[in-house]
Amino acid sequence: MKILVDQFVPYAVEALAPYAEALSVDGRTLTPEDVATADALIVRTRTKCNEQLLGEARNLKFVGTATIGYDHIDRQWLASRGIAFRSAAGCNRRAVLQWVAATLAHLAKKQGWRPEERTLGVVGVGNVGSLVAYYGRLWGFRVLCSDPPREQAEGLGLQDGFVPLERIAKEADIITFHTPLERGGEHPTFHLVDNELLGQMKDGAVVLNASRGEVADTEALVAHSHRQTLCIDVWEGEPDAIDRRLLEVAEISTPHIAGYSVQGKANASAIVLEALGQTLGIDELRGWYPEGVRSSQPRDISWEDMCAVVDDHCHLTEESERMKRCPEEFEYRRNSYPLREEFF
């Protein structure tokens, strides 16, 4: 049994070694010839899993991505071929929460406000957004949420804190985006943040994007940057074609590392390996978790306590300054980023 594993998915090759021929590969350069004889593939966002790459992979039974996003996966094509798929949804939600927390703490200190003086809009209230909304309320923000797919599926509304996106744009002082990237369907999110939405926002409002770069229209962000403060972790055209104008005007600029924690990486590997084990009949992978990694320890934390220690865990200004100096090192910075320990 042959399993190809992206070199930046930790723990997986060692965990699979007793049960299969597990090979560490560069997911950015995989070819159809590389995957032709594979039984399973574990990737990250840089590998486009579609018919072009996988069309000749006759033995392929499973594709897993050790990421929460899956816009690099042609799920419809996989399903048509009977190939099982699993993402690691929710794996790094506390890491992203803590990137948001560090950003909010930085802004509060620089701009001189407290949470009870601000309205926080959360767009996309899934694994990450629901945590951001919870802690936002705990810290004293007035929180407004928007998630049309959830609202439709669960019958949520104003009584649950959900409002139309247009109302969030008009009322929120800070808007943070945590949606998947959907280019079509009933609720597309491609360029959800556009000239119209930004034009509805207050002067001085803050936009945080730690979802997918294409959720925000770069041209629109640049055009409105004189009115809004931008804090960006994900970029259209990354890693090689980041717009230098946006990089220059953003208050916080990080290289797609919001979710990069020790626990997030361990959780991603555990989720994908368990699903792979179920598909390929490797029962020993059920409940597997890497030795030596402390699992997430969720706890409530006050705004004051969070602000006092967040820079020790997630120092965004240093990373932002490095990226602004050397944007050509985006992929290097992302791949060599020292993983953070989650602290709440």
Q: How does this structure look, described?
A:
- The two termini are 40 Å apart.
- The protein folds into 2 domains: 2-87, NAD(P)-binding Rossmann-like Domain (Rossmann fold); 93-259 and 314-336, Rossmann fold (3-Layer(aba) Sandwich).
- The chain has helices at 12-16, 32-35, 51-54, 75-80, 93-111, 127-139, 148-154, 165-171, 195-200, 218-223, 244-249, 262-280, 303-313, 316-325, 330-336, and strands at residues 2-6, 21-25, 40-43, 62-65, 84-87, 119-123, 142-146, 174-177, 206-209, 229-232, 252-253.
- By secondary structure, the protein is α/β, with parallel strands linked by helices.
- Helix 4 (75-80) links the parallel strand 4 and strand 5 (84-87).
- Helix 5 (93-111) packs parallel to helix 6 and helix 5 (93-111) crosses helix 13 (303-313).
- The mean pLDDT is 97.
- The strands form 2 sheets. The protein has a 6-stranded parallel beta sheet with strand order 7-6-8-9-10-11, sandwiched between helices. Strands 2-1-3-4-5 form a 5-stranded parallel beta sheet.
- The relative contact order is 0.13.
- It contains 15 helices and 11 strands.
